[in-house]
Amino acid sequence: MVTVGIEPCITALVKLLPSMYPFTSMFSKHVIAMFIHRQREHPVLVSAITRHTPFVCAGGRSSYHIQKKRCASCGYPASRNRKFNWSIKAKRRKTTGTGRMRHLKVLYRQFKNGFREGTEAKSQKRKSAAPASSGASQ
Q1: pLDDT per residue as tens digits for the range 94-124
Q2: Nearby residues of 54 by Cβ (< 8 Å), 6 or more positions away
């Protein structure tokens, strides 16, 4: 039984890679192998409606680890979002106002107007002078 080492596989892969990844021609075989290995461990997470889906994470970052089955940025599959208070920049990236704020942007507007409901705005049109009655119509 003949065992084939990993060297021929990587050599064949190096020939294929420049078409798929143009920047790989400047790297060694080892670096390319590690690049591919990392791609398998951390697939790119695509932004979607919810964060509670594997391979789907807020921000589109590739921080979901396949073997650990845990996202390093949001903490999926934990029920609560992962957050710590030691990084000012991390807080700034994840804080309120960095997303759509579907509900809050409406609340801010309602707050400015005192949460009024069922009222109608006054007409902004200028009232024109009353039409002069002509004496010809008799």
Answers
A1: 889 988 999 999 999 999 999 999 999 889 9
A2: 64, 69, 76, 77
